[in-house]
Amino acid sequence: MIAEFGHFALICALCVCLVQVGAGLAGANSVSAGLMRVADMSARAQFGLVLIAFGALTYSFVVSDFSLAVVHANSHIAKPLVYKIAGVWGNHEGSMLLWVLILALYGAAFSWGERAMPSSLHARILGVQGLMGIAFLVFLVVTSNPFARLDAAPFEGRGLTPILQDPALAAHPPLLYAGYVGFSITFSFAIAALLDGKIDRQWARWMRPWTLLAWVFLTLGIALGSYWAYYELGWGGFWFWDPVENASLMPWLAGTALLHSALVAERRGTLINWTLLLAIVTFALSLAGTFLVRSGVLTSVHAFANDPARGLFILAILALFTGGGLALFGWRAPATPADKFQPVSREALLVANNIFLATATVTVFVGTIYPLALDALGGPKISVGAPYFNAVFAPLTIPFLIMLPLGPLLAWRNDRLSPLVARLAPAALAAALITLGLALTRSGTPLLALVLLGGAFWLIGGALTDMGQRLRRLQNLTQTPLLSAPVAHAGLGVMIIGIITATAWRQELVVAATPGDALRVGEQSLRFDGVRERAGPNYTSEQGRLVYLDGAHEGKALLPERRFYEAERSQTTEAAITTDLTGHLYAVIGEPVDDKRVVRIWYHPFVAFIWIGAILMALGGALGLAGRVVGRRSHAATGTGA
Amino acid sequence: MIRAFTLLLVGALVLPAHAIDPGEALGDPALEARARALSVEFRCLVCQNQSIDDSDAPLARDLRAMVRARLLAGDSDQDIRAAVTARYGEFVLFRPRFGGATAVLWLLPLLLLGIAGWFVTRMFSRTTSSEVE
Question: Which structural domain range is residue A109 located in?
């Protein structure tokens, strides 16, 4: 019964969406306050209804209602409660329902939160948001109904892929989707503004916080996914240039470009067309990512034979929104005033930022699509993988890093370089000295790695210089956006240090060990104590034991495991990791070889910097948001922003 | 089928895989480093998106052994790439070789930067000739 309520609520939500689109767009055209209010109410009702459906599915998972096909296929009575709940989105139908829930949540949040803007723009945004609601609700109800029943209810479910039975499952998909789907609002902003015909600085000012919000979530979602892969995968890789990762990186890169171009649009009223285009493209890339992942056209590690109808449906949604958005842009994009800024100005540096980010986005896109396109056109079968992306991205990053610290320190419109040189000299000198020191002490570090490290130090130095200046201007909490850029930029520098050191200085030991053997990797010595059997809640495991023989962790035991999940008939590797800021020791046990046991130990220097950097970047974004929210509370319309 | 689908949620998740087994490594650290660098470039053809360096599939193990045997025999990296490609096709290379079909792939980033640079110079030559606000 509960499931039928959920199903019914979804269909009601679809009907409400139709009302939302009609009332929003028609209400804005006829400037009817009544119709526009209906659009607001619809957006909130849509969220309520989808929430009911989501609650119904969650309930079905918690009580293990195996008469639902999706619960039977993805759950098991013996599964711990947290994975029953998180398992709601650990499958296609449930994850699409989560997608729709977040879409509806953004619509409702927008309806509640954005009261200051003209009501026609507000109503049009809700109308466009409703169009997406229709598309995805139809997709859900027609091709991916999470409430489909099985004819005879089985007694037991098939269980959840063990690799997904991890606390990260609770947070990674919701964060990632909050990012992806968050860009639906900026897309709606662009479409509504093109329909509206009034696109100015104020429009960019209203849009930018939503861009920031989506970007913060996407940053955290990708970082968490990377950390999850790092500890679950069994050797400590953190980024694989897998098509599915690329699918999340593309909207992130485009969204980062959008953040910066919207800043110029907001402060200077230029780059408005480019900002509109980026808003459309960023969401299109979110949709394209969904299509690529779900249609099964990619040979990915997430390989799945899939229902082609679903792929076609999402392709249709993608074509409709991207094509429609771009066509509208081509037709209605406003004539731009001449961009009045000089080559040495903050605008010019932000243009450079956008050139690099756009190039990076296209490179990832083409690299991901190229093998498919070539194959479809009858060309040779080729692969494009990590070595290609690393080879292209490393050189692309260097000029980007060199220019980045200059931007925030330059004045808008026109500035001179010479005062900047003096201000940044300490940062440049420090970066050069540290890099030189590393080159002398860490022989064997590749030149490219040293150059990138130097760039990262320069970036952090520049961010600190910038931060010092801005802290002096900071007077109250509405001005936290002042600190947004330096914190986020320093975060990028920290992340690059982590990526480079963990790649270039990684140490590895692979041995067949007998209990009592002393193993040495890098500076660390450990004793292998053998393997014992252990029982978990829904698995059995082999647990190895390694003990530190010296150093700060002397006497500490590491307990890597191999787990066997009976219900799902598969196994996972649980690495044991010592997490120091200066590096992670990462230990895994493998198969028995005769009377020995394969033990693999890695040392990943400063690898934590990758995720600390990502958190700093997200914090920078959050600081940009916080001041706006505080500012809006204290005085309604105008405030100070960075 | 649907269950495998869930993996999409996981971003980077790959099935647990391991690099080389004990005993595979060459005694000479320089040769071994070259072997690892090469292994990362070759796709494991029976896996999904894993290099032979990451995979524990038997085919990947054989290919790793072949790479090391050829290194011991004194082959250059280029020779080994050519030999592996001759046997398994271009598909085995994670870093596609520059050629007619892949020129776009390698030149596109440069091309984009070039076009953007041209636009920007044009923009500034226009603004500097007109009066600035």
Answer: 1-160
